[in-house]
Design goal:
Elements (H helix, E strand, L loop, with lengths): L1 E2 L10 H23 L5 H4 L10 H17 L2 E8 L4 E7 L13 H15 L5 E7 L3 E8 L2 H8 L10 H13 L11 E7 L9 H10 L4 E6 L5 E5 L5 E5 L4 H11 L3 E4 L2 H16 E7 L1 H23 L4
Parallel strand pairs: 3-4, 3-6, 6-7, 7-10
Antiparallel strand pairs: 1-2, 2-11, 4-5, 8-9
């Protein structure tokens, strides 16, 4: 819980002042009682003393004051709510290196499964688009709330070719930048870019990241694979060679930094699922402050009523 107007909490200083006044009043009451009758005669003079019950109305009154002071400071709590009109583009690398089996069963299959988990975990209000890219981007599904269409698009990821991450970012940002909310404003949007290697063709990814940043579209990058990842490449003469295909987390981290997003790395399928689950929770929802001053006002008034009623009932006075 936080407060929108915390300076009003200085009013809580009235509580120790009131306690000091009340304790002083109790001391004077006891002094008057001793002057009225000797302590050993008090039980016979006042056989039905209220005891601790005497202090209940004052304690309830103080609790009421605290609640009402809290209300003036406008208490608020943070709640997670779906991002209205938001859109996310899943841009997945399908270059030939995605056939590496260091991430079981292979990188592209692990990416498909993690993306499915991601889509299942975000609010239905969020639109999701799917893009694959190798030496050129291919839009498999425009941002939509139709999850069946999204799942079908993810099932069409086919690896092969080079890597043009910059073109994928530029194309994704162009699609997302044209989306609008119900009030005509640009829709909140983000790109989730999964790749396992260096860019081998197309425009500079950092330039594309700057273009996305100008549109206020952050790029969240995921580096998939291990340094030991390799694929078998067939030569023109019919022979094969084993080629190392390590991920390039530094390049992806730079894309995320420039665009205002975040970067992640996943060395196995379980790690990738965890990353995507985290992204689903982060991108599909936002934290919103809700005022709860009304609860404190209501509680304060109820406590005030209870304390006053108890004092009138037991002692025939308000305090």
């Amino acid at each position: 819980m936080s407060f929108a107007d915390p300076p009003f909490l200085i009013g809580l200083l009235i509580v120790p002042v009131a306690l000091y006044w009340y304790l002083g009043r109790q001391r004077r009451r006891r002094a008057l009682a001793r002057a009225f009758a000797a302590p050993e005669l008090t039980p016979s003079v006042m056989p039905n003393r209220p005891g601790l019950r005497r202090h209940v109305p004052m304690l309830v009154l103080l609790a009421s004051i605290v609640a009402l002071i809290f209300a003036t400071a406008k208490p608020q709590v943070s709640a997670s709510v779906p991002v209205g009109g938001a859109a996310i583009m899943l841009a997945t690398d399908v270059s030939g290196s995605m056939l590496a089996t260091d991430v079981a069963p292979n990188r592209v299959s692990a990416a498909q499964r993690a993306a499915n988990t991601f889509v299942l975990g975000i609010p239905k209000e969020v639109r999701v688009g799917v893009m694959s890219f190798n030496q050129s981007p291919s839009v498999l599904s425009l941002p939509t709330r139709d999850r069946a269409e999204t799942f079908a698009a993810l099932g069409r990821l086919q690896p092969g070719g080079g890597t043009a991450a910059g073109n994928a970012i530029e194309e994704s940002a162009g699609i997302l930048g044209r989306l609008r909310t119900a009030n005509g404003r640009q829709a909140p949007a983000a790109i989730v870019l999964l790749s396992d290697g260096k860019t081998t063709s197309g425009i500079d990814p950092t330039r594309a990241a700057r273009d996305a940043a100008r549109l206020h579209i952050p790029v969240y990058t995921v580096a998939l694979g291990t340094a030991q990842g390799s694929i078998t490449v067939k030569r023109k003469n019919g022979t094969t060679v084993n080629r190392q295909v390590p991920p390039d987390p530094q390049a992806l981290a730079e894309i995320a930094r420039i665009s205002g997003g975040k970067t992640f790395a996943a060395a196995d399928a379980a790690g990738l699922r965890t990353v995507y689950q985290h992204l689903g929770a982060q991108l599909g929802r936002r934290q919103e402050q809700h005022q709860i001053a009304g609860y404190f006002v209501g509680s304060g008034l109820v406590l005030l009523l209870v304390g006053s009623s108890a004092s009138l009932l037991w002692f025939g006075r308000l305090i």
